[in-house]
Amino acid sequence: MQIGIDFGTSYSAAAACIDGKLHGVRFGDHAQFRTAVFFPAAVPNPDDFVLTDALEAEVESHIRSARAAQRRALDNWQQRLSEAQALPAERRVQAMALISEPAERTESDLRAAALRAVRHSWMERSVRDSRSASVKVNDAIFGDDAIDAYISDGFGHLVESPKSMLGYNLLPGAKKIILHIATHVLEHIRLSATRQLGVPVRAAILGRPVEFKSAMGPEGTTQALSMLTEAAQAAGFEQVSFLEEPAAAAMHYHTQRATPERSLIVDVGGGTTDIAYAEVGGPAASPRIFGSWGLPKGGTDIDIEMSLNAFMPLFGRGEPGIPVHHFREAASVQSPPLQREFRSHNYRNTPAPFRHRLMALQRLGATSQLNREAERMKIHLGAERLGRVDLDFIEDGLTADLDRAHHDAAYGGFLDRLRAVLDRARLAIGETPDSIFLTGGSSRSPAIQSTISAMFPAVPLVIGDASLGVVSGLAAAAAMA
Ligand SMILES: Nc1ncnc2c1ncn2[C@@H]1O[C@H](COP(=O)(O)OP(=O)(O)OP(=O)(O)O)[C@@H](O)[C@H]1O
Ligand SMILES: [Mg+2]
């Protein structure tokens, strides 16, 4: 049995076509899962935690500073409220909308939070001291659960979006880790498919971007394909081939059209944006692909910009004395080497309030949590004018208020690159397409849809299944092979 696998930067999915019918492989209750793996570490037993006098003093000090932060947040709220009330009526409504009352936490909430923090740093210290925190490979956790486990627990190794590292010049150790992670993901898919389809699954067509993210040019794509092949073989696939992701999306659209049309297929994903021009529909067995174009940028790059623009100023971005690259390292959660770099900086002499905020961001799990908020706000601000994020995990009472300007700044660079690659495609095809078929999670963004429409004003946009367009086409192709 041959299946189609969409090993995505953000989400992975798999499906098979059996007797012309699409069978999506389920992952828990879902048709796809976050491409993230968490390997828990064998850590000291939390039950060994005993509240000594020194630790009790730490708890008390946490409670005192949380109480003070709560008081400050309350004063600040009251002051902003009275300032807003003094404004003329037309500006008052908008100003009031931006102010929300800080949540008041009871003494027992404060004590519980302080105990959690103290126990967490005790665990961190114990792990550092024991050096025995070996990784438990067999207990790997996949998907959003992996990120949750890392954020709440912190002990172990999380790799998010391993696909975005495949095209980079990796040191041998890092290369082994990424290969290992990709193998785990593909094995998870193969075993899930085998269980659900009731037959051994040993052959697959994998989607691939036109151009992988890379700092080595075309060599990056060659390396990524060879690493993926090796990972798939290690995961138990005896037969592996690749199909460009936009060609797979074209295949999916092809199966839905009774009459032929020439369509520009645009897949805006998490890591890359992939375009193909194809004749789809009608009696032919598969679409005719005239050309393809790739942009190695996608939704995760927009998340990084969102984080840099909306959150990092709270950590001192733009202040003298803190190198700007520290903030990009912190925001690049897909890159284990950059994350390690960020954690290695010493902020003891950085001025307040940035010192303790940066140190809190260096705690395991914190950058992943911040990135989650950046992604959530990117999506939220696509539809809403304002947004607010609680950053209690960094500092009690700390919040970030966001508006459309943050959204536009985060998208700006990406939209410029998108226009440039669409321009290249438009020039190369030299005719007006009959339609534009959109897929990929980022294609849900109104800013991206309107940018594409504006470049092809007379061409109808066909909104495909954003999540499953590529995997459906891969499954159809797998059934033909
Ligand atoms: N409503 C939305 N607005 C903007 N972005 C969105 C929305 N919904 C999902 N996304 C983004 O879509 C991206 C995931 O898309 P998709 O699942 O197509 O990526 P992928 O296939 O994993 O990546 P790639 O194909 O690049 O390897 C994420 O960056 C996510 O934040
Ligand atoms: Mg994709």
Automatic annotation (TrEMBL):
The keyword S-adenosyl-L-methionine does not apply. Residues 52-87 form a coiled coil. Gene3D superfamilies: 3.30.420.40, Actin, Chain A, domain 4. Keywords: ATP-binding, Coiled coil, Nucleotide-binding. It comes from the Bacteria. Pfam families: MreB_Mbl (PF06723). InterPro entries: ATPase_NBD, Hsp_70_fam, MreB_MamK-like. This is Hsp70 family protein.
